[in-house]
């Protein structure tokens, strides 16, 4: 999806586009304390047959279909997207009542409902969480039956930040303790915006929470291919600037975080794989879209493997640029057959 006339990352669009770790247990137990509501909502019901991890766990817990499960505060947990029917059975067996997805992909609402679980879809970005969305997530945790399982895709970055913000906002956890839990989840140091939003969080008043949106949608409206392409185009321009800056945040564009940009790019391609604009096309179109997604995921892996605060060396820059060219080539292949 990248234009030959720009750098390896720039995408051409048209309105008619068809082509597409851990802190010590003693500190955590004093830093994260339950409110009366959460203490009540997290008491293990008789139906619980799988124990949930506690705040002493210094690594993520795995269960059938559930990965990266980490406790952030009483009643607040983070993890990866549920995988198949077994995942929802695991969540039910652990006593969870509500699932909050902060990922862009459409949740499996029916599969969750079959296990008596409510789904809430409140997507966030890799670059951070807006104040409005932070309050929405916190209100959902406060108002809906707990315990609450918050997930993104990998269960390492966005869900960790969302769980941290919710816990701090509800006075269940200090920012410092929440950040330590993010490290247990494996949140990448390069996702500076996610760490910043948790570090800057503070308890909010009942009035603020009561004023937050309480619609709690089970599924947000999909973006569709045209809007996704617009976002991909913008991200590609950002990545061009990042590459010119040696694969670092450009001095004249300090809001651009490389890991956040490429993470969002990978998510957009992943969402498009499930979009009707892809599933309704032939197998070759799906293959080309899959290739673009795989190339973007590899680029994300290369960027997140870089050491925070250190400039990439020449070999790392070369590897990033090489992968960028692979991504560009996959996009051009799709354009040549389905758009150009």
Quick tags:
single chain; 340 residues; alpha/beta; Protein-Tyrosine Phosphatase, Chain A; 2 domains; 14 helices; 6 strands
CATH fold-level name of the largest domain: Protein-Tyrosine Phosphatase, Chain A
Q: Indicate the percent of residues in helices.
A: 40-55%
CATH architecture of the largest domain: Alpha-Beta Complex
| Widest β-sheet, arrangement of strands | 1-2-3-6-4-5
User: Could you give a short account of the major beta sheet?
Assistant: 6 strands, mixed
Show unreliable segments: 1-30, 34-46
The CA-CA distance between the termini, in Å, is 11 Å
Give the beta-strand count: 6
Choose one word for the global shape. globular
User: How large, in whole angstroms, is the Cα Rg?
Assistant: 20 Å
Number of H/I helices: 14
Averaged pLDDT: 85
- The CATH homologous superfamily of the largest domain is termed Protein tyrosine phosphatase superfamily
Helix/strand/pairing class, anyone?
Answer: alpha/beta
Portion in beta strands: 5-15%
Number of domains: 2
CATH domain class name of the largest domain: Alpha Beta
List SSEs in N-to-C order.
HHEEEHEHEHEHHHHHHHHH
């Amino acid at each position: 999806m990248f234009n030959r006339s720009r750098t390896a990352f720039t995408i051409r669009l048209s309105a008619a586009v068809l082509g597409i770790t851990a802190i010590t247990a003693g500190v955590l137990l004093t830093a994260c304390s339950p409110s009366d509501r959460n203490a009540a909502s997290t008491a293990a019901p008789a139906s619980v047959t799988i124990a949930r991890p506690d705040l002493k766990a210094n690594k993520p817990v795995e269960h059938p279909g559930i990965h990266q499960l980490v406790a952030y505060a009483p009643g607040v947990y983070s993890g990866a997207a549920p995988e198949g029917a077994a995942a929802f059975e695991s969540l039910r067996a652990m006593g969870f009542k509500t699932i909050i997805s902060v990922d862009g992909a459409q949740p499996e609402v029916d599969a969750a409902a079959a296990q008596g679980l409510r789904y809430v879809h409140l997507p966030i970005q890799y670059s951070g969480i807006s104040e409005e969305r932070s309050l929405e997530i916190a209100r959902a945790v406060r108002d809906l039956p707990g315990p609450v399982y918050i997930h993104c895709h990998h269960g390492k970055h966005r869900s960790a930040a969302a769980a941290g913000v919710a816990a701090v906002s509800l006075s269940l956890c200090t920012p410092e303790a929440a950040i330590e839990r993010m490290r247990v989840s494996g949140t990448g140091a390069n996702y500076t915006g996610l760490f910043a939003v948790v570090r800057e969080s503070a308890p909010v008043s009942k009035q603020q929470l009561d004023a937050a949106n309480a619609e709690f949608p089970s599924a947000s409206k999909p973006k569709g291919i045209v809007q996704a392409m617009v976002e991909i185009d913008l991200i590609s321009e950002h990545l061009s600037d990042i590459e010119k800056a040696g694969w670092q945040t450009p001095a004249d564009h300090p809001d651009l975080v490389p890991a956040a940009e490429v993470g969002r790019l990978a998510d957009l391609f992943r969402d498009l794989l499930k979009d009707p604009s892809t599933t309704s096309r032939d197998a070759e179109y799906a293959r080309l879209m899959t290739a673009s997604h795989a190339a973007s995921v590899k680029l994300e892996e290369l960027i997140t493997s870089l050491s925070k605060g250190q400039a990439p060396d020449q070999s790392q820059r070369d590897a990033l640029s090489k992968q960028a060219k692979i991504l560009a080539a996959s996009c051009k292949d799709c354009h040549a057959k389905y758009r150009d």
